[in-house]
Amino acid sequence: MIRFRGVHKSFGSKRVLDGVDLTIRRGEVFFIIGQSGVGKSVLIKHLIGLLRPDAGEIYLDEQEISRLSERQYFAVRRRCGMVFQHSTLFDSLTCLENVALPIRKHKRLRRKAALAEAMRRLEQVHMEEFAHVYPAALGDGMRKRVAIARTLTMEPEFVLFDEPTTGLDPISARRVDALIRELADRLKVTCVVVSHDLTSIFAIADRIVMLYQGRVRLLGTPDEFRASTDPVVRQFVTGSAEGPIEV
To answer: If you write DSSP's letter for every residue of 84-152 in order, what string do you get?
Structure first.
């Protein structure tokens, strides 16, 4: 469904991705993990054309997309939604108006129809009772759910989440986890999640990839990660500070 083949990316003399090969299946919740600065967010930004690989290929279904022009990327971006770490809602608009904004812009619906569609999206993330509340009055977890609703307005086949639970309290984080799992199970959306949150990773992931020194260290199920004897994987999975990770 999504395939990275031999993807390389450097920024100046710093090599971030060094031949990444992996496949993400349709409809799964797929986590990308690893130390800070290992290239997790860099990897997913390649999928929506915010970055281009120095070498290698990226496929969406059977289409090679890493060499598309900016104009050709419009169609790809309509299929791939992105939920950034910070919710980036407009504080001057209600939650309902925030969600309706891309509907009016891209679907060119009249205000009444756009608001009706926006309400349906808020219902999908269980935020309909806060439709007329301004984002500043909500907690971080609720704002995150509104941001997810806004992303769903474009009816994406894939949603990319960049550290979706960072900074959230445990209850809010688990609610976001449950919503991501629900998107995959009920709406059949493929969810690609960059995260350090071990609770999230082992609670909702179908498969996980660990990046290390620019390459895939391990790709497998949560059970395969738990069973791994690789010291680098073990140190990450257990959250142990004992023994330096190789550099």
So the answer is: -SS----TTS-HHHHHHHHHHHHH---HHHHHHHHHHHHHHTT-GGGTTS-GGGS-HHHHHHHHHHHHH
Q: What parts of the chain have a pLDDT lower than 50?
A: 243-247
Please say whether the beta carbons of 134 and 94 come within 8 A. yes
Side-by-side strand order, sheet with 55-60: 14-24, 2-11, 55-60, 63-64
Inter-residue long-range contacts of 118-127, CB under 8 Å, 24+ positions, other chains counted? 118/149, 118/153, 121/149, 121/150, 121/152, 121/153, 122/95, 122/96, 122/146, 122/149, 124/149, 124/152, 124/187, 125/149, 125/152, 125/179, 126/179, 127/95
42/231 Cα distance (integer angstroms): 25
| Residue type for position 108 | R
Count Cβ neighbours within 10 Å for each residue of 8-33 and write b for 16 or more, e otherwise: ebeeeeeebbbebebebeebebbbbb
- For 58, the 3-state DSSP assignment is strand
Instruction: Give the pLDDT of residue 242.
Output: 52
Q: C-alpha 25: how far from its chain's center?
A: 14
Q: What is the pLDDT of residue 240?
A: 65
The pLDDT value recorded for residue 241 is 54
> Three-class SS of residue 56?
strand
Q: What is the pLDDT of residue 153?
A: 92
- Residue 38's Cβ-count burial label (10 Å; 0-12, 13-18, 19+) is buried
Q: Residue 225: name the closest of 20, 33, 18 by CA.
A: 33
